[in-house]
């Protein structure tokens, strides 16, 4: 049985992630592991009253877990709640690997302005560190009944493993996968012949049964940024999920170069599936 990890902080956003996670679990016959995102804060454990406060936080979390498990959408789903004494954004990846999770589902409110530049959203931080495929969902009225998934890529050979994982997840979810390349102006522009040659190398690398035929399945759009191209194409085609590979840059590299995957996960109203390169 596959495992879906859902970090929660008992907010309405994480409740939305749980609802979508339950829908996926039913589709693929998986169990859900719920873990309290906040855990018991490190500062609590260093105070003089650490025992009383830690006990209070633990009991409160147990009570909130109990309430979540009564949600009607969880009927028929195996759910295992796990309260972590300490759980931060990077340790989610470690915990996910420890329980052999196939997917992490996480809610996000997104962020904007200076907060986005210097802090980013919580989901962005997990995107940077997670080696497990991560589905970022937003709290909105969109129903989760996916039929179409867009995988947007530059089709560099380093994305081959990410492509294979996304194809596998699309198969598990029984959704149609559509491949997308966004052609940008300037030095990144590629002619049709250049793009065909690149795609041929890519599909040979992933051992596609018919690399030449596969080239024709890639949709190509021209836009001023990858983010705009992906969102415009998703809107035009009625996509349900956007999938993208990400480098998970950190530190100065992230500040200077950013991450397309993180930006899309942060700004999209649709669920975004990210797989680390």
Quickly describe the structure.
With 277 residues, the protein is of the alpha/beta class. Helix content is 45%, strand content 20%. The chain contains 12 helices and 10 strands.
Structure overview:
With 277 residues, the protein is an alpha/beta fold. The chain has two domains: 1-142, HUPs (Rossmann fold), CATH 3.40.50; 146-277, Rossmann fold. It has twelve helices and ten strands. The protein has a ten-stranded mixed beta sheet, sandwiched between helices. Helix 4 (89-98) packs across helix 6 and helix 6 runs antiparallel to helix 12 (260-267). Residues 39-45, 112-120 and 250-258 have low confidence and may be disordered.
In whole angstroms, the N-to-C terminal distance is 25 Å
**CATH homologous superfamily title of the largest domain:** HUPs
CATH fold name of the largest domain: Rossmann fold
CATH architecture of the largest domain: 3-Layer(aba) Sandwich
Which features does this protein show?
10 strands, alpha/beta, 277 residues, elongated, Rossmann fold, 12 helices
Layout of helices and strands, plus pairs?
Layout: E1 3-8, H1 12-28, E2 31-36, H2 42-46, H3 50-68, E3 79-82, H4 89-98, E4 103-108, H5 113-118, H6 122-129, E5 134-138, E6 148-152, H7 160-173, E7 176-183, H8 192-205, H9 211-215, E8 218-222, H10 226-237, E9 241-246, H11 251-257, H12 260-267, E10 272-276
Parallel strand pairs: 1-2, 1-4, 2-3, 4-5, 6-7, 6-9, 7-8, 9-10
Antiparallel strand pairs: 5-10
